[in-house]
Amino acid sequence: MNSLEVSNLKIGDDATGRALVRNSSFLVEPGSCTAIVGESGSGKSLTCRAILRLNPAGLRQSGSIALGGVDLTKLSEREMRKIRGRRLCLIVQNGMRAFDPSSVVGVHLRETLNRHFGWSRAEMTARMGKAMESVRLKDPVAVMNSFPHQLSGGMLQRIMIALALVLEPDIVVADEPTTALDTVSQYEVVEQFASLRARIGCSMIFVSHDLGVVRRLADEILVMRDGEIVESGPTRKIFSEPRHAYTRHLISAKEALNRRFNHVMGGDDVVDR
Amino acid sequence: MLTVERVEKSYRTGGLFARRRKQVLSGISFEWKAGECLGIIGESGSGKSTLGRLLLGIERPDRGSVRWEGRPADERRARRGSVSAVFQDYTSSIHPFFTVEKALMEPLTLRNKRAAIDSRRIDRLLEQVGLDSSYRNKYPHELSGGEAQRVCIARAVATEPRCILLDEAVSSLDGSVQVQVLDLLRSLKTAYDMGYIFITHDIQAAAYLCDRVMIVRDGRIEETVDVDRLRDVQSPYAKKLLDMVMA
Predict the structure, then answer these.
(1) Which ipTM score applies to this complex?
(2) Can you give the residue ranges of the ABC transporter domain (chain B) (predicted)?
Protein backbone atom coordinates (compact mmCIF):
# COMPACT_ATOMS: atom_id res chain seq x y z
CA MET A 1 0.00 0.00 0.00
CA ASN A 2 1.11 3.51 -0.75
CA SER A 3 0.82 6.78 1.03
CA LEU A 4 -0.59 9.92 -0.46
CA GLU A 5 1.20 13.18 0.08
CA VAL A 6 -0.34 16.47 -0.90
CA SER A 7 2.03 19.42 -0.74
CA ASN A 8 1.39 23.09 -1.33
CA LEU A 9 -1.85 22.46 -3.17
CA LYS A 10 -3.31 25.71 -4.42
CA ILE A 11 -6.49 25.99 -6.42
CA GLY A 12 -7.72 29.27 -7.85
CA ASP A 13 -10.43 30.40 -10.18
CA ASP A 14 -8.94 31.91 -13.33
CA ALA A 15 -12.06 33.88 -14.19
CA THR A 16 -12.43 35.71 -10.89
CA GLY A 17 -8.87 35.39 -9.60
CA ARG A 18 -10.16 34.05 -6.27
CA ALA A 19 -8.09 31.57 -4.30
CA LEU A 20 -10.29 28.57 -3.47
CA VAL A 21 -7.74 26.37 -1.75
CA ARG A 22 -4.67 28.06 -0.26
CA ASN A 23 -1.51 26.13 0.16
CA SER A 24 -2.74 22.95 1.76
CA SER A 25 -0.34 20.14 2.61
CA PHE A 26 -1.12 16.87 4.28
CA LEU A 27 -0.07 13.23 4.34
CA VAL A 28 -2.34 10.19 4.32
CA GLU A 29 -0.45 7.24 5.77
CA PRO A 30 -0.98 3.79 4.25
CA GLY A 31 -4.06 2.20 5.78
CA SER A 32 -5.18 5.25 7.73
CA CYS A 33 -8.31 7.32 7.42
CA THR A 34 -8.08 11.09 7.17
CA ALA A 35 -11.26 13.07 7.50
CA ILE A 36 -11.69 16.54 6.07
CA VAL A 37 -14.32 18.54 7.93
CA GLY A 38 -15.62 22.04 7.34
CA GLU A 39 -18.70 23.88 6.15
CA SER A 40 -19.93 24.13 2.58
CA GLY A 41 -17.60 26.21 0.43
CA SER A 42 -14.52 25.48 2.52
CA GLY A 43 -12.77 23.67 -0.33
CA LYS A 44 -13.18 20.08 0.88
CA SER A 45 -14.64 18.74 -2.34
CA LEU A 46 -12.19 20.71 -4.47
CA THR A 47 -9.31 19.09 -2.63
CA CYS A 48 -10.81 15.64 -3.25
CA ARG A 49 -11.35 16.28 -6.91
CA ALA A 50 -7.87 17.78 -7.26
CA ILE A 51 -6.44 14.46 -6.04
CA LEU A 52 -8.30 12.62 -8.79
CA ARG A 53 -7.65 15.44 -11.25
CA LEU A 54 -11.33 15.90 -11.89
CA ASN A 55 -11.56 19.66 -11.41
CA PRO A 56 -12.76 21.61 -14.43
CA ALA A 57 -10.11 23.15 -16.69
CA GLY A 58 -11.07 26.69 -15.67
CA LEU A 59 -9.53 26.15 -12.25
CA ARG A 60 -5.84 26.83 -11.87
CA GLN A 61 -4.01 24.30 -9.77
CA SER A 62 -0.45 24.09 -8.47
CA GLY A 63 1.47 21.99 -5.99
CA SER A 64 2.18 18.30 -5.99
CA ILE A 65 0.07 15.25 -5.17
CA ALA A 66 2.25 12.20 -4.75
CA LEU A 67 0.80 8.70 -4.63
CA GLY A 68 3.55 6.33 -3.53
CA GLY A 69 6.21 8.72 -4.80
CA VAL A 70 4.61 9.35 -8.20
CA ASP A 71 3.41 12.89 -8.79
CA LEU A 72 -0.12 12.60 -10.13
CA THR A 73 -0.17 16.15 -11.42
CA LYS A 74 2.61 15.33 -13.89
CA LEU A 75 0.96 12.25 -15.42
CA SER A 76 -0.68 12.27 -18.82
CA GLU A 77 -4.45 11.95 -18.97
CA ARG A 78 -4.01 8.41 -20.32
CA GLU A 79 -1.88 7.31 -17.37
CA MET A 80 -4.22 9.07 -14.94
CA ARG A 81 -7.13 7.13 -16.38
CA LYS A 82 -5.44 3.89 -15.31
CA ILE A 83 -4.99 5.15 -11.78
CA ARG A 84 -8.55 6.36 -11.34
CA GLY A 85 -10.66 3.48 -10.16
CA ARG A 86 -7.79 1.02 -9.85
CA ARG A 87 -5.68 2.87 -7.31
CA LEU A 88 -7.81 5.87 -6.39
CA CYS A 89 -11.51 5.31 -5.92
CA LEU A 90 -14.01 8.15 -5.63
CA ILE A 91 -17.32 7.74 -3.85
CA VAL A 92 -19.51 10.79 -4.23
CA GLN A 93 -22.38 12.24 -2.22
CA ASN A 94 -25.22 11.57 -4.56
CA GLY A 95 -25.40 7.95 -5.68
CA MET A 96 -28.14 8.84 -8.11
CA ARG A 97 -25.75 11.06 -10.06
CA ALA A 98 -22.77 8.72 -9.83
CA PHE A 99 -24.41 6.13 -12.09
CA ASP A 100 -25.61 6.51 -15.64
CA PRO A 101 -29.39 6.96 -15.35
CA SER A 102 -30.04 5.43 -18.77
CA SER A 103 -28.54 2.02 -18.12
CA VAL A 104 -28.73 -0.57 -15.37
CA VAL A 105 -25.99 -0.35 -12.74
CA GLY A 106 -24.42 -3.63 -13.93
CA VAL A 107 -23.31 -1.89 -17.12
CA HIS A 108 -21.40 0.71 -15.17
CA LEU A 109 -19.79 -1.93 -12.97
CA ARG A 110 -18.78 -4.08 -15.92
CA GLU A 111 -17.35 -1.11 -17.80
CA THR A 112 -15.20 -0.13 -14.84
CA LEU A 113 -13.91 -3.64 -14.25
CA ASN A 114 -13.28 -4.14 -17.96
CA ARG A 115 -10.98 -1.17 -18.06
CA HIS A 116 -8.77 -2.42 -15.27
CA PHE A 117 -8.87 -6.22 -15.41
CA GLY A 118 -8.95 -8.83 -18.14
CA TRP A 119 -11.76 -10.81 -16.56
CA SER A 120 -14.49 -12.70 -18.33
CA ARG A 121 -18.07 -11.60 -17.95
CA ALA A 122 -18.91 -14.50 -15.69
CA GLU A 123 -15.94 -13.81 -13.46
CA MET A 124 -16.86 -10.14 -13.14
CA THR A 125 -20.43 -11.01 -12.17
CA ALA A 126 -19.22 -13.59 -9.67
CA ARG A 127 -16.74 -11.24 -8.02
CA MET A 128 -19.14 -8.33 -8.01
CA GLY A 129 -21.88 -10.55 -6.61
CA LYS A 130 -19.69 -11.70 -3.77
CA ALA A 131 -18.67 -8.14 -2.92
CA MET A 132 -22.28 -6.99 -3.02
CA GLU A 133 -23.33 -9.73 -0.64
CA SER A 134 -20.61 -8.66 1.74
CA VAL A 135 -22.05 -5.13 1.85
CA ARG A 136 -25.43 -6.70 2.61
CA LEU A 137 -27.09 -6.23 -0.73
CA LYS A 138 -29.42 -9.16 -1.06
CA ASP A 139 -29.88 -10.64 -4.51
CA PRO A 140 -26.91 -9.03 -6.33
CA VAL A 141 -28.10 -10.14 -9.78
CA ALA A 142 -31.39 -8.29 -9.38
CA VAL A 143 -29.51 -5.21 -8.16
CA MET A 144 -27.15 -5.29 -11.13
CA ASN A 145 -30.16 -5.43 -13.42
CA SER A 146 -31.83 -2.41 -11.83
CA PHE A 147 -31.69 1.19 -12.96
CA PRO A 148 -30.30 3.71 -10.47
CA HIS A 149 -33.74 5.26 -9.89
CA GLN A 150 -35.08 1.89 -8.78
CA LEU A 151 -32.60 1.70 -5.92
CA SER A 152 -32.39 3.75 -2.75
CA GLY A 153 -29.56 6.18 -2.00
CA GLY A 154 -28.12 3.87 0.64
CA MET A 155 -28.12 0.91 -1.75
CA LEU A 156 -26.34 2.89 -4.49
CA GLN A 157 -23.73 3.98 -1.99
CA ARG A 158 -23.19 0.37 -0.95
CA ILE A 159 -22.85 -0.68 -4.60
CA MET A 160 -20.05 1.87 -4.90
CA ILE A 161 -18.40 0.39 -1.83
CA ALA A 162 -18.78 -3.11 -3.28
CA LEU A 163 -17.07 -1.93 -6.46
CA ALA A 164 -14.23 -0.52 -4.38
CA LEU A 165 -13.97 -3.90 -2.63
CA VAL A 166 -13.39 -5.58 -5.99
CA LEU A 167 -11.02 -2.90 -7.31
CA GLU A 168 -8.93 -2.91 -4.12
CA PRO A 169 -7.59 0.63 -4.56
CA ASP A 170 -4.77 2.15 -2.51
CA ILE A 171 -6.95 5.05 -1.52
CA VAL A 172 -10.69 5.55 -1.32
CA VAL A 173 -11.80 9.17 -1.54
CA ALA A 174 -15.30 9.54 -0.13
CA ASP A 175 -16.90 12.93 -0.62
CA GLU A 176 -19.83 13.34 1.80
CA PRO A 177 -21.03 9.78 1.14
CA THR A 178 -23.56 9.74 3.98
CA THR A 179 -24.93 13.27 3.86
CA ALA A 180 -27.91 12.44 1.64
CA LEU A 181 -28.90 9.37 3.68
CA ASP A 182 -31.31 8.88 6.56
CA THR A 183 -30.16 7.70 9.96
CA VAL A 184 -30.59 4.00 9.27
CA SER A 185 -28.90 3.91 5.86
CA GLN A 186 -26.20 6.23 7.13
CA TYR A 187 -25.40 3.80 9.91
CA GLU A 188 -25.22 0.87 7.50
CA VAL A 189 -23.04 2.72 5.00
CA VAL A 190 -20.63 3.90 7.70
CA GLU A 191 -20.32 0.33 8.98
CA GLN A 192 -19.50 -0.80 5.45
CA PHE A 193 -16.82 1.87 5.10
CA ALA A 194 -15.21 0.67 8.29
CA SER A 195 -15.20 -2.93 7.10
CA LEU A 196 -13.97 -1.93 3.62
CA ARG A 197 -10.88 -0.47 5.19
CA ALA A 198 -10.42 -3.46 7.46
CA ARG A 199 -10.74 -5.89 4.56
CA ILE A 200 -8.55 -4.41 1.85
CA GLY A 201 -6.32 -2.25 4.02
CA CYS A 202 -6.76 0.85 1.91
CA SER A 203 -6.30 4.38 3.13
CA MET A 204 -9.26 6.67 3.10
CA ILE A 205 -10.00 10.33 2.69
CA PHE A 206 -13.41 10.93 4.15
CA VAL A 207 -15.09 14.27 3.66
CA SER A 208 -18.02 15.09 5.89
CA HIS A 209 -19.55 17.81 7.97
CA ASP A 210 -21.08 15.26 10.30
CA LEU A 211 -18.70 15.00 13.22
CA GLY A 212 -20.50 11.92 14.57
CA VAL A 213 -19.58 9.95 11.47
CA VAL A 214 -16.06 11.37 11.39
CA ARG A 215 -15.46 10.37 14.96
CA ARG A 216 -16.47 6.82 14.17
CA LEU A 217 -14.18 6.43 11.14
CA ALA A 218 -11.25 8.79 11.14
CA ASP A 219 -7.73 8.50 12.57
CA GLU A 220 -6.71 12.00 11.56
CA ILE A 221 -8.81 15.10 11.03
CA LEU A 222 -8.17 18.14 8.87
CA VAL A 223 -10.37 21.14 9.60
CA MET A 224 -10.84 23.39 6.59
CA ARG A 225 -12.22 26.87 6.42
CA ASP A 226 -12.28 29.20 3.41
CA GLY A 227 -9.80 27.04 1.53
CA GLU A 228 -7.35 26.80 4.37
CA ILE A 229 -6.46 23.97 6.71
CA VAL A 230 -6.88 25.67 10.06
CA GLU A 231 -6.15 22.69 12.24
CA SER A 232 -5.11 19.07 11.88
CA GLY A 233 -4.31 16.23 14.23
CA PRO A 234 -5.40 12.85 15.57
CA THR A 235 -9.17 12.46 15.98
CA ARG A 236 -9.11 12.06 19.73
CA LYS A 237 -6.98 15.14 20.19
CA ILE A 238 -9.13 17.30 17.91
CA PHE A 239 -12.22 16.36 19.90
CA SER A 240 -10.68 16.59 23.35
CA GLU A 241 -8.52 19.69 22.97
CA PRO A 242 -9.35 21.66 19.84
CA ARG A 243 -6.95 24.57 19.48
CA HIS A 244 -8.49 26.69 16.76
CA ALA A 245 -11.59 28.75 17.54
CA TYR A 246 -13.30 27.47 14.41
CA THR A 247 -12.79 23.83 15.40
CA ARG A 248 -14.21 24.60 18.81
CA HIS A 249 -17.20 26.22 17.12
CA LEU A 250 -17.85 23.11 14.99
CA ILE A 251 -17.49 20.77 17.92
CA SER A 252 -19.63 22.82 20.27
CA ALA A 253 -22.46 22.81 17.71
CA LYS A 254 -22.38 19.01 17.59
CA GLU A 255 -22.06 18.81 21.35
CA ALA A 256 -25.19 20.93 21.78
CA LEU A 257 -27.18 18.34 19.82
CA ASN A 258 -25.51 15.45 21.62
CA ARG A 259 -26.04 16.86 25.06
CA ARG A 260 -29.79 17.14 24.61
CA PHE A 261 -30.01 13.69 23.02
CA ASN A 262 -27.88 12.03 25.69
CA HIS A 263 -29.84 13.84 28.34
CA VAL A 264 -33.19 12.47 27.18
CA MET A 265 -31.65 9.05 26.63
CA GLY A 266 -30.34 9.20 30.19
CA GLY A 267 -26.80 8.32 29.11
CA ASP A 268 -23.45 9.83 29.92
CA ASP A 269 -22.43 13.15 28.50
CA VAL A 270 -19.66 11.79 26.33
CA VAL A 271 -19.99 8.49 24.54
CA ASP A 272 -16.61 7.50 23.24
CA ARG A 273 -16.05 4.78 20.70
CA MET B 1 -55.52 22.20 16.83
CA LEU B 2 -54.99 19.56 14.20
CA THR B 3 -56.90 16.31 14.14
CA VAL B 4 -55.93 13.45 11.88
CA GLU B 5 -58.28 10.50 11.77
CA ARG B 6 -57.71 7.12 10.13
CA VAL B 7 -55.91 8.55 7.13
CA GLU B 8 -55.10 6.28 4.19
CA LYS B 9 -53.18 7.23 1.08
CA SER B 10 -51.98 5.25 -1.90
CA TYR B 11 -50.33 6.10 -5.19
CA ARG B 12 -50.56 4.46 -8.55
CA THR B 13 -47.28 2.82 -9.50
CA GLY B 14 -45.92 1.56 -12.77
CA GLY B 15 -47.21 3.94 -15.39
CA LEU B 16 -50.30 5.93 -16.14
CA PHE B 17 -52.66 3.07 -16.87
CA ALA B 18 -51.39 0.55 -14.37
CA ARG B 19 -53.86 -0.65 -11.80
CA ARG B 20 -51.32 -1.42 -9.15
CA ARG B 21 -51.33 0.94 -6.22
CA LYS B 22 -48.75 1.37 -3.52
CA GLN B 23 -50.12 1.96 -0.06
CA VAL B 24 -48.13 4.87 1.36
CA LEU B 25 -50.05 5.62 4.55
CA SER B 26 -52.49 3.50 6.47
CA GLY B 27 -54.48 4.02 9.63
CA ILE B 28 -52.81 7.26 10.68
CA SER B 29 -54.56 8.97 13.57
CA PHE B 30 -53.09 11.57 15.86
CA GLU B 31 -53.64 15.00 17.32
CA TRP B 32 -51.48 18.06 17.45
CA LYS B 33 -52.28 20.61 20.11
CA ALA B 34 -51.59 24.31 19.74
CA GLY B 35 -48.10 25.29 20.86
CA GLU B 36 -46.79 21.76 20.77
CA CYS B 37 -43.69 20.72 18.89
CA LEU B 38 -44.30 17.32 17.37
CA GLY B 39 -41.56 15.41 15.57
CA ILE B 40 -42.38 12.93 12.85
CA ILE B 41 -39.46 10.55 12.42
CA GLY B 42 -38.98 7.92 9.76
CA GLU B 43 -36.63 6.50 7.16
CA SER B 44 -36.77 7.60 3.55
CA GLY B 45 -39.83 6.06 1.95
CA SER B 46 -41.70 5.70 5.23
CA GLY B 47 -44.41 8.11 4.07
CA LYS B 48 -43.56 10.97 6.40
CA SER B 49 -43.35 13.57 3.62
CA THR B 50 -46.61 12.35 2.10
CA LEU B 51 -48.18 12.81 5.51
CA GLY B 52 -46.74 16.33 5.54
CA ARG B 53 -48.39 17.12 2.21
CA LEU B 54 -51.73 15.86 3.52
CA LEU B 55 -51.43 18.07 6.60
CA LEU B 56 -50.76 21.06 4.35
CA GLY B 57 -53.76 20.23 2.20
CA ILE B 58 -51.59 19.97 -0.92
CA GLU B 59 -53.03 16.48 -1.36
CA ARG B 60 -56.15 14.79 -0.13
CA PRO B 61 -56.25 11.52 1.77
CA ASP B 62 -58.00 8.56 0.09
CA ARG B 63 -59.88 7.90 3.30
CA GLY B 64 -60.04 9.53 6.70
CA SER B 65 -59.77 13.21 7.51
CA VAL B 66 -57.24 15.92 8.27
CA ARG B 67 -58.79 18.85 10.09
CA TRP B 68 -57.45 22.18 11.32
CA GLU B 69 -59.75 23.46 14.05
CA GLY B 70 -62.41 21.10 12.80
CA ARG B 71 -62.24 22.22 9.17
CA PRO B 72 -60.77 20.04 6.40
CA ALA B 73 -57.18 20.86 5.47
CA ASP B 74 -57.84 21.10 1.76
CA GLU B 75 -60.06 24.15 2.39
CA ARG B 76 -57.91 27.20 1.88
CA ARG B 77 -59.68 29.23 4.52
CA ALA B 78 -59.09 26.53 7.09
CA ARG B 79 -55.36 26.67 6.50
CA ARG B 80 -55.10 30.45 6.52
CA GLY B 81 -53.43 31.55 9.70
CA SER B 82 -53.22 27.95 10.82
CA VAL B 83 -50.25 26.49 9.04
CA SER B 84 -47.31 27.40 6.86
CA ALA B 85 -44.39 25.32 5.69
CA VAL B 86 -40.62 25.22 5.29
CA PHE B 87 -39.15 22.56 3.02
CA GLN B 88 -35.79 20.86 2.70
CA ASP B 89 -34.66 22.24 -0.63
CA TYR B 90 -33.97 25.89 0.12
CA THR B 91 -32.61 26.55 -3.38
CA SER B 92 -35.97 25.89 -4.99
CA SER B 93 -38.12 27.30 -2.20
CA ILE B 94 -37.76 30.95 -3.19
CA HIS B 95 -38.76 32.27 -6.60
CA PRO B 96 -35.40 32.91 -8.34
CA PHE B 97 -36.57 36.25 -9.79
CA PHE B 98 -37.81 37.55 -6.43
CA THR B 99 -35.67 39.54 -4.05
CA VAL B 100 -35.82 38.58 -0.39
CA GLU B 101 -38.13 41.53 0.20
CA LYS B 102 -40.54 40.45 -2.51
CA ALA B 103 -40.51 36.87 -1.26
CA LEU B 104 -41.45 38.06 2.22
CA MET B 105 -44.12 40.43 0.89
CA GLU B 106 -45.91 37.69 -1.04
CA PRO B 107 -47.71 35.97 1.84
CA LEU B 108 -48.51 39.32 3.44
CA THR B 109 -50.10 40.82 0.33
CA LEU B 110 -52.02 37.63 -0.33
CA ARG B 111 -53.48 37.78 3.11
CA ASN B 112 -54.25 41.43 3.17
CA LYS B 113 -54.79 42.60 -0.37
CA ARG B 114 -55.64 46.21 0.19
CA ALA B 115 -53.59 47.32 3.12
CA ALA B 116 -50.17 48.71 2.36
CA ILE B 117 -47.49 46.74 4.09
CA ASP B 118 -45.30 48.57 6.47
CA SER B 119 -41.74 48.24 5.27
CA ARG B 120 -40.53 48.16 8.85
CA ARG B 121 -42.35 44.87 9.16
CA ILE B 122 -40.00 43.28 6.63
CA ASP B 123 -37.01 44.57 8.56
CA ARG B 124 -38.44 43.18 11.76
CA LEU B 125 -39.01 39.78 10.19
CA LEU B 126 -35.46 39.69 8.88
CA GLU B 127 -34.11 40.77 12.21
CA GLN B 128 -36.03 38.04 13.98
CA VAL B 129 -34.38 35.35 11.86
CA GLY B 130 -30.94 36.86 12.42
CA LEU B 131 -30.51 38.73 9.14
CA ASP B 132 -30.25 42.50 8.68
CA SER B 133 -32.03 44.86 6.31
CA SER B 134 -29.16 44.68 3.79
CA TYR B 135 -30.63 41.34 2.73
CA ARG B 136 -33.80 42.95 1.41
CA ASN B 137 -32.49 43.42 -2.09
CA LYS B 138 -30.63 40.15 -2.44
CA TYR B 139 -31.67 37.36 -4.75
CA PRO B 140 -31.89 33.73 -3.61
CA HIS B 141 -28.72 32.67 -5.45
CA GLU B 142 -26.74 35.23 -3.46
CA LEU B 143 -27.66 33.56 -0.19
CA SER B 144 -25.91 30.67 1.52
CA GLY B 145 -27.97 27.62 2.51
CA GLY B 146 -28.43 28.76 6.07
CA GLU B 147 -29.41 32.28 5.01
CA ALA B 148 -31.90 31.01 2.40
CA GLN B 149 -33.47 28.73 5.00
CA ARG B 150 -33.74 31.68 7.40
CA VAL B 151 -35.58 33.65 4.71
CA CYS B 152 -37.94 30.70 4.24
CA ILE B 153 -38.55 30.63 7.98
CA ALA B 154 -39.18 34.39 8.02
CA ARG B 155 -41.67 33.94 5.20
CA ALA B 156 -43.39 31.15 7.11
CA VAL B 157 -43.77 33.21 10.29
CA ALA B 158 -44.86 36.34 8.38
CA THR B 159 -48.51 35.29 8.50
CA GLU B 160 -48.19 34.43 12.19
CA PRO B 161 -49.55 30.91 11.84
CA ARG B 162 -50.34 28.70 14.78
CA CYS B 163 -48.22 25.94 13.33
CA ILE B 164 -45.24 25.66 11.00
CA LEU B 165 -44.65 22.38 9.24
CA LEU B 166 -40.94 21.78 8.73
CA ASP B 167 -40.23 19.01 6.23
CA GLU B 168 -36.54 18.07 6.61
CA ALA B 169 -35.93 21.79 7.01
CA VAL B 170 -32.47 21.45 8.54
CA SER B 171 -31.35 18.21 6.90
CA SER B 172 -29.45 19.83 4.02
CA LEU B 173 -27.62 22.28 6.23
CA ASP B 174 -24.12 21.86 7.64
CA GLY B 175 -23.82 20.63 11.20
CA SER B 176 -23.07 23.95 12.86
CA VAL B 177 -25.61 25.89 10.77
CA GLN B 178 -28.17 23.22 11.66
CA VAL B 179 -27.84 24.00 15.34
CA GLN B 180 -28.10 27.73 14.68
CA VAL B 181 -31.35 27.24 12.75
CA LEU B 182 -32.73 24.91 15.44
CA ASP B 183 -31.92 27.53 18.07
CA LEU B 184 -33.66 30.15 15.93
CA LEU B 185 -36.76 27.94 15.71
CA ARG B 186 -36.75 27.53 19.47
CA SER B 187 -36.65 31.27 20.06
CA LEU B 188 -39.32 32.01 17.45
CA LYS B 189 -41.59 29.46 19.07
CA THR B 190 -41.76 31.51 22.24
CA ALA B 191 -41.82 34.87 20.43
CA TYR B 192 -44.80 33.95 18.27
CA ASP B 193 -46.46 31.46 20.60
CA MET B 194 -46.76 28.83 17.89
CA GLY B 195 -45.96 25.16 17.47
CA TYR B 196 -44.12 23.00 14.99
CA ILE B 197 -44.58 19.78 13.17
CA PHE B 198 -41.03 18.73 12.48
CA ILE B 199 -40.62 16.01 9.88
CA THR B 200 -37.13 14.53 9.84
CA HIS B 201 -34.97 11.43 9.76
CA ASP B 202 -32.54 13.01 12.18
CA ILE B 203 -33.47 11.82 15.64
CA GLN B 204 -30.96 14.05 17.35
CA ALA B 205 -32.38 17.16 15.73
CA ALA B 206 -35.89 16.03 16.66
CA ALA B 207 -34.84 15.44 20.26
CA TYR B 208 -33.31 18.93 20.29
CA LEU B 209 -36.46 20.72 19.19
CA CYS B 210 -39.50 18.57 19.95
CA ASP B 211 -41.70 17.79 22.93
CA ARG B 212 -43.11 14.60 21.48
CA VAL B 213 -42.04 12.37 18.61
CA MET B 214 -44.03 10.05 16.41
CA ILE B 215 -42.05 7.26 14.76
CA VAL B 216 -43.40 6.26 11.37
CA ARG B 217 -42.53 3.05 9.59
CA ASP B 218 -43.90 1.84 6.26
CA GLY B 219 -46.81 4.25 6.42
CA ARG B 220 -47.93 3.32 9.92
CA ILE B 221 -47.35 4.95 13.27
CA GLU B 222 -44.96 2.68 15.08
CA GLU B 223 -44.87 4.55 18.35
CA THR B 224 -45.52 7.99 19.81
CA VAL B 225 -43.50 9.05 22.80
CA ASP B 226 -42.62 12.18 24.77
CA VAL B 227 -39.04 13.22 24.12
CA ASP B 228 -38.30 13.12 27.84
CA ARG B 229 -39.27 9.47 27.82
CA LEU B 230 -37.44 8.60 24.61
CA ARG B 231 -35.29 6.05 26.38
CA ASP B 232 -38.40 4.09 27.37
CA VAL B 233 -39.53 3.33 23.80
CA GLN B 234 -41.27 -0.01 23.57
CA SER B 235 -41.23 -1.19 19.97
CA PRO B 236 -38.13 -3.02 18.70
CA TYR B 237 -38.00 -0.80 15.60
CA ALA B 238 -37.83 2.40 17.64
CA LYS B 239 -35.12 0.87 19.81
CA LYS B 240 -33.11 -0.08 16.74
CA LEU B 241 -33.51 3.43 15.35
CA LEU B 242 -32.16 4.96 18.53
CA ASP B 243 -29.22 2.56 18.60
CA MET B 244 -28.16 3.69 15.16
CA VAL B 245 -27.72 7.32 16.12
CA MET B 246 -24.07 8.25 15.86
CA ALA B 247 -23.58 10.75 18.61
Answers:
(1) 0.75
(2) 2-243
